[in-house]
Specification:
single chain; 138 residues; alpha+beta; 3-stranded antiparallel beta sheet; 3 helices; 6 strands; 30% strand
Amino acid sequence: MLKGVLRCGCCDAAMVPAFTTRRGKQYRYYACTEASSQGYDTCEVATVAAGEIEEIVLRQLRELLAAPQTVARTLRGMQEQAVEGRRDLRRQGGKLDKRLGELVPACPVSIEVSGVYVSIELSPPGLVKGAERREDER
């Protein structure tokens, strides 16, 4: 449930889900990746019972979601991040288009389809800049 979300309170390493089986019963827990790779004595937290930590997280989420102002504030923050993300992508796209234009010149192409010639210019990002049609003069 918390894979990719839970962090160790001791060393800030990721906590990953794991389980062990003893006497036919399965025990779920989250293990500190630092502790599992360096030795469980290297981390004060090392492991946390899955059921307990999941219940704590769910309780806190319920409390947050029960407060409408918190939900509204969170949604506004997410919307602002999305708007800024789109602006950033447009800026980056413009820079890439400019750089592609410097590296790859536009390529004029003529295509004949059923006696009709279509002239187009392919721009570096693969967009059609302009199109012109003319009938075959045979």
